[in-house]
Amino acid sequence: MSMALLELKNLNMSFGKLQAVSNLDMNVNQGEILGLIGPNGAGKTTVFNVITGNYRATSGKVIFKGEDITKLAPHKIAQRGIARSFQQTFLFQWSTVLDNVLMGFHMNCRAGALKEFLHTSLARKRDREARQEALEILDFMGLSGQKYEMAGSLPHGHQRALGVSIALVCHPTLLMLDEPVTGMNPTETIEMVERIRKIRDRGITVIVVEHSMKVVMGISDRITVLNFGHKIAEGVPDEIKKNPEVIEAYLGKEGK
Amino acid sequence: MSRINMVGLGILVLLLLLLPLVVGGFMTQIATTTITFAMLGLAFGLGMRVGLPRLDIAAWWGVGGYTTALLMKAGVSFWLTVLAGGIIAVIAGGLLFSLALPRGMIAFFVFCMVLSMAIYQMFGSVPLFGGWGGTTGVPAPTIGSFVIDTQREVYYLGLFFLMVTVTVYYLLYHSRIGRAWDSISSSLKLARSVGIDVVRYRMANVLIGNFFIAVAGGFFVSYYRAAIPSIFSFQAGVNTMVYLIIGGFSHSLIGPILGAIIATFIPEYLRFAQTYQAIASAVVVILILMFLPMGIMGWVDRRVKPWFYKRKWYARLSNWGVKEQPKMPV
Fold first, then answer.
1. Residue from B238, B258, B270 nearest B300 by CA
2. Domains within chain A, CATH numbers bracketed
3. How many CB atoms within 10 Å of residue B62?
4. Between chains, do A103 and B194 touch, taking CB under 8 Å as contact?
5. Any idea which fold B3-318 has?
6. Does A167 sit within 8 Å of B182, measured CB to CB?
7. Could you read off the pLDDT of A186-227 as tens digits, one per residue?
């Protein structure tokens, strides 16, 4: 059995009577881009929230690098190497773009609380390094022109890019992107897709939830399709395109 | 800090040092009271940095106050009693807050409110604390053989405590800890997603606050020479919030100090201090929220600062001694 980076085992998540995710088994392999798709309300974002610890699974297990992380708090899961961007653009609205990214550095710069408090030279050195890397990440994400702008005043597409930048700062092993190209124009979308590929090439495994079929089909190594909380298909993009169940889920029976 | 800010700060400190030499005893006394209230307001501002409005400030103020009152009457040195008060407030706070903090902001808010009233009741009814009449006859603090007992000397003692508090808070706000705090108050979910342990950072914040609130209590008692339950009432805790509303929520250092000055001096001058204080502060809060929703400092940010930014001399002044071009204010 090949070792998957992330395994979901018989995962269930219900809100009262609503079964948002049922009996989901899913593997994410090291170094791939996995597309997670499905019609509205299929449970994609719920799966994200369960993996990152924002929701506690009703039953089933989430295993990351061989460790059961089902019951861990969100910050502990983040510390183990899972970073995410949010569907709603959760940002530090009143800070500059650069400060936003610097805040994400929290986990990486460990000068020790007391030394940092006293502004020792070590802490200052770490601060400079953090700044340097933050600038590189912003450059990579195409935001270097906006680094001193207020995050809240950015256009929607740039806000998404900033969300991804913050997630990248955490040096993740697994990056989870919730609708990364929503609100972007075609050029921005192409750039973003290119960047996601580059992120993968750096050795970071990526899970993408996205509505735009074109993007998902173009970018994913593998695709998992959800409908009403059930997994209805899994495979490479070409298989998924032809899968009758998937077509039915998206277009209804008439569409056949 | 840019060089011009340092010069400004230096002038301000010099003015504060000269104040009691210029004004009379009555003004000095009000200024000393203001210093105490400013320290409490600063602690409220500290809590707001992690999105926790604290209504238990008066309680910890009392804990520090009574510790100093009781220990000094037993003959312990003033400085040790202040330290002891701070430590007791941190330990007791750590135990009590560990019940409420993991349950989120609303739970904490309600818990603090109830706690403040309970501790107030405790001061009044437990015989150790001297009943509702309080503990009186606290001796004056000393440094070696020097007795701090004139109005002026007490003012300088208070100013020392205030400056220590402001310095520590300033360093905290500009460190990694401060950045983590800001991220918590700005977006809880994102903070967690970048690996910040929200409960632990909030705990650190409120315990640091507790220490300095208790220090303010120790100082106040050494100045007032008594600890009386009615001083540490729930109302006093609510007032600290009023300081921040008047001064401006977005400035956790200047805001509360400015608010404390206004809220202490004006009532003293208009002489309606005791009788109508609660009504007056309600009216002030409503007026502020209507006309200056971000407080006085918010108004300064929006109206006063842009006027300066347009002046050439100001630009030259603010770039004086700055090596790297800082980001432009928006």
1. B258
2. 1-81+172-256 (3.40.50.300), 91-170 (no CATH)
3. 32
4. yes
5. ABC transporter involved in vitamin B12 uptake, BtuC (1.10.3470)
6. no
7. 888 999 999 999 999 999 999 999 888 888 999 999 999 999
